[in-house]
Specification:
The complex is a heterodimer of chains A (about 260) and B (about 475).
Chain A: E1 2-11, E2 14-24, E3 29-33, H1 40-48, E4 53-62, E5 65-66, H2 72-77, E6 80-83, E7 90-94, H3 95-109, H4 117-130, H5 136-139, E8 141-142, H6 148-162, E9 166-170, H7 178-190, E10 197-202, H8 206-210, E11 215-220, E12 223-228, H9 230-239, H10 242-252
Parallel strand pairs in A: 3-10, 3-11, 6-9, 9-10
Antiparallel strand pairs in A: 1-2, 1-4, 4-5, 7-8, 11-12
Chain B: H1 3-12, E1 26-28, H2 35-44, H3 49-67, E2 91-93, H4 108-116, E3 130-136, E4 139-143, H5 146-150, E5 155-158, H6 159-165, H7 167-173, H8 184-192, E6 197-201, E7 210-216, E8 227-232, E9 237-245, E10 252-255, E11 258-263, E12 268-275, E13 287-298, E14 304-311, E15 316-319, E16 322-325, E17 331-340, E18 345-354, E19 360-369, E20 374-383, E21 391-400, E22 406-415, E23 421-430, H9 433-441, H10 446-462, H11 467-476
Parallel strand pairs in B: 3-7, 6-8, 7-9, 8-11, 9-12, 10-13, 11-13, 12-14, 13-15, 13-16, 14-17, 15-18, 16-18, 17-19, 18-20, 19-21, 20-22, 21-23
Antiparallel strand pairs in B: 1-2, 3-4, 5-6
Helix pairs in contact in B: 2-3, 3-8, 6-7, 9-10
The chains are: A alpha/beta (about 260), B alpha/beta (about 475).
Amino acid sequence: MLEIRSLSAGVAGKAILRNIDLDVRAGEVHAVMGPNGSGKSTLAQVLAGHPAYTVTGGEVRYRGEDLLAMSPERRARAGVFLAFQYPVEIPGVSNATFLKAAVNEVRAERGLEELDAMEFLEVLEQKLKLVEMDRSFLSRPVNEGFSGGEKKRNEILQMAVLEPTLAILDETDSGLDIDALRVVAHGVNRLRRPDKAMILITHYQRILQYLEPDHVHVLFDGRIVRSGSKDLALELERRGYDWIREDLAVAARPA
Amino acid sequence: MNTTDRTIEALANREYKWGFVTDVAADTIPPGLDEDVIRLISAKKSEPDFMLEWRLRAYRHWSKLERSAGEPKWANVSYPPIDYQKIVYYSAPRREGSGLASLDDVDPKLIETFDKLGIPLAEQKRLAGVAVDAVFDSVSVATTFKEKLAELGIIFCSFSEAVRNHPELVQKYLGSVVPYTDNFYAALNSAVFSDGSFCYIPKGVRCPMELSTYFRINTAGSGQFERTLIVADEGSSVSYLEGCTAPRRDENQLHAAVVELIALEGAQIKYSTVQNWYAGDADGRGGIFNFVTKRGKCAGRRARISWTQVETGSAITWKYPSVILQADDTVGEFYSVALTANRQQADTGTKMIHVGKNTRSTIISKGISAGRGNNTYRGLVKILPRASHARNYTQCDSLLLGDRCGAHTFPYIEVANASSTAEHEASTSKISDEQLFYCKQRGLSGENAVSLIINGFCKEVFKNLPMEFAVEAQKLLGVSLEGSIG
């Protein structure tokens, strides 16, 4: 579904990602882990098409198409979803209006008819349950005055409504207490499908207890330095990121 | 140019759909202004003497102003001098016979024009629940639902008709809120006003439908000077809407209207405007100079007057819908969205004059500037010594699109007693790249994202518009429907 080849990218002239290779197939969940500043969020932003980031090399194919050539909105309509680490506030625009606008643009792209208000409300009712939110949530302005946990749950609600093919969750677990984490993880789990894939970007292993990844990658200084099974995440949790740093230092030492 | 700028450019250059001209035989007097012109206008309308006398007094006052101080200069707008002798002060579509025609006698071209503007006048096509007075250049061409409203004792007709049929009401209230000495343009209007709407709601009657006037300028070189007078008697209520458009022309045209509202004890008047006069082109050529005086007086206790305006058109807007809170326990409200794109200029706001005790006022102003637009909020909150426990809340927000436009706020607050409170909040913001990216990541196009964000910005004002108008207003701003669910 997603093939990343030798991807290099940066922001404001500063190189961040260096030669990233990653393959994600339908049905898979990949975790990308790494210490702060390793380039995890940059990877997420580049895949979603944030204009502030510049791709300096490599290519990304999404379902056979050149992802990097697509505008952010086209990527979204083609099923690429980013759950933001810091969801953005849109004052005065209700959650319901925002979601309806988004859903109808995505549906138009897929050649489906627009949902009317009643149909849409029905869809929303089911999705709200998934993230344990009540209806009052829909009439509140997008992310405005939301607590950290509510913002993250709102991202998952949007994901549930938009039904993306490839979901990238950028530190969705950060800043959540254990109950909120459970709700969010449970919601995400229910969205797993054989024809869909996810990339979980996280600093900690704890969300992976709920969302078992098929593959774990360690990002370090803009490179993927380790890939493995979910056991790799456990090892990281036990030993911290330092052992990787030391390992790399050893490997880098001239023979 | 990045996407945000392109999107804003598109919004700013949105096509003016109402810019066509109707080819209709017109009775147009030569340009120029003197006492003979005033007499001619008055004669054309077969007005009683008191009306002519009033016009002449206004004219003499205006001439004095014109020779001395001239036009008001304090507004934050600039334009070349206006030659008042080059303006046509009366132009009316010609019609057969005389007197007020039934709809069958109205030139089909006029009916077609209003049809095209979305204001069907024919019986079978009328908008349900909205009575319309259609004003074309200097005259009212038709008023719908008049008979039905008359059953309730409601008078809704053109101003000319009111002068002829209800002179006692006109004489009693005309100029009682905006005297002809009020300002330069009010004096000019009082001298030459040609038509407009008149509305009287009798005691205790709640008007069952929205009343509205649609103003259309058609003739080149003409000015439109209409006058609206609404009187809500004790315990009555009415919601009134006003819309306006004009052809696309390279020359500026003057529109100097006066609107007076009088709310007696316990009465409520809600006055909504969607102003969409031709705004000129991207280089600032053409467009309407919209110099308007609108004021309401809460003359009886517990009266309430609410102004809601969406100002998207005109080359220059100079307009301050105000409320005099004369009696105790009265309420005044002002909700405004003003959009200036291209080279449009707006200096708009309100005055809330608290005279009575326990009077309350609310001001919500949303200014949006794009292109090289220049948007100014100017407001006065004046609380007089007798107005104990008066309260005002003012909120002025500005949204800037792009980096070549301007937003200014001039709030004046004068409080003359210690028991009153006046609150003022203001903010200036831009649409952030992060907001745009967030919307696009959810599949929204740049245009729709900007629309959605602007719509959110204006929500507090839009929610005060009657439903039909809210939809219209959102379309004008190029915004999608907000708040239809949830």
